Amino acid sequence: MIVTRLRLRDFRSYASAELALGEGLTVLHGRNGAGKTNLLEALYFGCTGRSCRTSNERELVRFGASATRVEIDARDADGAHSLSVGFQPGEAKRLKADGAPVERLVDVTARPLVSVFLPDRLELVKGAPALRRAHMDQLVAALWPARAATRRAYTAALAQRNALLGRIRAGRASRESLPAWDAELARHGIALRDDRAAAIDLVRDGFAALATELGLAGEPELRFRPRSRAATPEDLAAELAERTDGDLDRGFTGHGPHRDDLVLARDGRDLRAYGSQGEQRIALLALLLAEREALAEARGAAPLLLLDDVMSELDPERRERLAGRIARHGQSVVTTTDLAHVPGAGDAGVARVAVADGELRPDAPAEARAAA
Question: CB count, 10 Å around CB of 324?
Answer without folding.
Answer: 12
